[in-house]
Design a protein that fits this description.
This protein has 85 residues and is mostly helical. The chain contains 3 helices and no strands.
Length: 85
Amino acid sequence: MKRIVWFIIGTLVGVYVVTRLKRRAQALAPESLQASAEKMAGAIRHFGDEVRAGMAERETELRDALGIDTATDTATTQTQREDYR
């Protein structure tokens, strides 16, 4: 009877370990890593776009507050920023 109990416990532990190892292997597979990298790159890109939008909004607020002409300066600034990207 003891042998059967230990056999069942060993089998369950073995199945659990194999299942966990398969999940780890799939998580470390190149396709999974590539998908994770693409998600991260998209999030970083989105964050950068949000920062740039906030900077442009704040720059407009400051120019209005200081009374700086925005027509000539904005065209030059936009060209420089697009080249930077």
